[in-house]
Amino acid sequence: LSAWSAVPAGPPDPILGVSEAFKADKDPRKINLGVGAYRDEHGKPYILTSVKKAEELVTSSNPDKEYLPITGHAEFTKNAAKLAYGADSIPLTQGAIAVTQSISGTGALRIGGAFLARHYPNAKIIYLPTPSWGNHTPIFRDSGLEVRGYRYFNKETVGLDFEGLKADLLAAPEQSIVLLHACAHNPTGIDPTDEQWKEISNIVKEKKLFPFFDMAYQGFATGSISNDAFAVRHFVAEGHQVALAQSFAKNMGLYGERVGAFSLTTADPEEKARVDSQLKIVIRPMYSNPPLHGARIANAILANEALYGEWETEVKGMADRIISMREKLYNILTHDLKTPGEWGHIKSQIGMFSFTGLTPAHTQVLAEKAHVYMTRDGRISMAGLNSGNIEHFATSVDSAVK
Ligand code: PMP
Q1: ipTM over 0.90
Q2: Pocket test for ligand 1, best of 18, 128, 135, 220 (most atoms within 8 A of CB)
Q3: Does residue 133 have its Cβ closer than 6 Å to ligand 1?
Q4: What is the pLDDT of residue 35?
Q5: Helix or strand or coil: residue 244?
Q6: Which of 112, 209, 122 is nearest to 168 (CA)?
Q7: Mutate to test the pocket of ligand 1, among 38, 214, 354, 379 (most ligand atoms within 8 A of CB)
Q8: Which residue in 218, 191, 188 sits closest to 318, CA to CA?
Q9: How many CA atoms lie within 13 A of 202 on its CB side?
Q10: β-strand pairing of 259-265 with 243-247
Q11: Residue 246's pLDDT is what?
């Protein structure tokens, strides 16, 4: 008898399963709007020019392949923290931010979950927005935290349920942990306004909640690195201690290189040193130390003024192309096709995704009849649309809802 004869088959991953179905479809009109990876105007994966140049700089310097320290490439993590918190951030200039390299954003969240499960001195309950990125629940549950939800999405308005959000955070036990998407909320594409962030900060303060920011899309929301860091920087300026997961998958297009960082703001350099030592103890038994290559590429961009400028322009280019697809889709649906329903949210939502309001039944018809693939919740990756396929997408949606 095999040791694994009683292992039950698990369900397929809801997002990666969409890509499988897409691959199996042989129709030339097929469109994959499932996975959140940027595509250029020809629907092709896009390697940033700044990344290509940075990679050339790295390889031409003939670097060795020795192990990195447990917390990774020190110059990269310093620059990653500067990117998120801002060069003039008080804890940064005081040397009070503990930061480690991570296996992209997922790894940062997992290190954070494990660190909080071990060292957070209060109730180990984390509140996630409903809905949230599908991997958040398993990441924090497997880290040993109790996962609960706070209201985020209002189905009626296809907008933020701000009253529900505030009521749920006010009702949470004091000192609970609250996960906040720093910008470009996945899957809804709906972010709080700056004024709403200020109110959230006040509630977090009043209830002594611990804010854990997930920033997987810095630059992708508005096209500006600093605008997209507003929430994180505001919370830190307001005196909150924060945890922060950063990913360079989307904004540098380094998906498979797995480049990220996890950081905690601490009281002072002495406390930071103690926190650093415990981050190492969390990480060492997981994977010893992180991969080299992607961190070197990201650092070559962050550390070089000219490349940094070029990168910022490219990030804005990606964000702008997505925004132009939103405009175009909205115009075709409302003006050209007069598709039943209200589609204003397509334009007002932000970042890589749009929560279309399409039902699971619609998504099934779209896949079977129109070769258009998306997750069952009606979320589409706007980056999968381009001038070559947007008409087919819009007319397919039009027939699906009529
Ligand atoms: N957080 C959110 C909200 C995300 O959407 C993603 C990517 N889909 C991640 C974290 C992490 O992705 P990665 O591990 O590829 O950086």
Answers
A1: yes
A2: 135
A3: yes
A4: 83
A5: strand
A6: 209
A7: 214
A8: 218
A9: 7
A10: antiparallel
A11: 98
Any bridge partners for residue 10, and if so which?
none
The atom of ligand 1 lying closest to the CA of 247 is 16
- Residue 144 CA to its chain's centroid (Å): 22
Question: Does residue 188 line the site of ligand 1, with CB under 6 A?
Answer: no
Measured distance CA(346)–CA(342) in Å, rounded: 9
State which H helix or E strand residue 381 sits in: strand 379-381
SS3 8: coil
Residue 335 burial by Cβ neighbours in a 10 Å radius (0-12, 13-18, 19+): exposed
How many angstroms from the chain centroid is the CA of residue 19? 19
Instruction: Note if 166 is an active site residue.
Output: no
Q: Is residue 250 flagged as an active site residue?
A: yes
Q: Pairing state of beta strands 379-381 and 153-154?
A: unpaired
Question: Residue-wise over 52-79: b if at least 16 C-beta within 10 A, else e?
Answer: ebbbebbeeeeeeeeebebbbbeebbbb
pLDDT, residue 368, reads: 93
With b for 16 or more beta-carbon neighbours within 10 A and e for fewer, the 161-172 pattern comes to: bbeebbebbeeb
379-400 residue pLDDT tens: 999 999 999 999 999 999 999 9
- What predicted TM-score, i.e. pTM, was given to this entire model? 0.96
**In angstroms, what is the span from residue 116 Cα to ligand 1's centroid?**
19
User: For the chain, what is the mean pLDDT?
Assistant: 96
| 155-200 residue pLDDT tens | 888 899 999 999 999 999 999 999 999 999 999 999 999 999 999 9
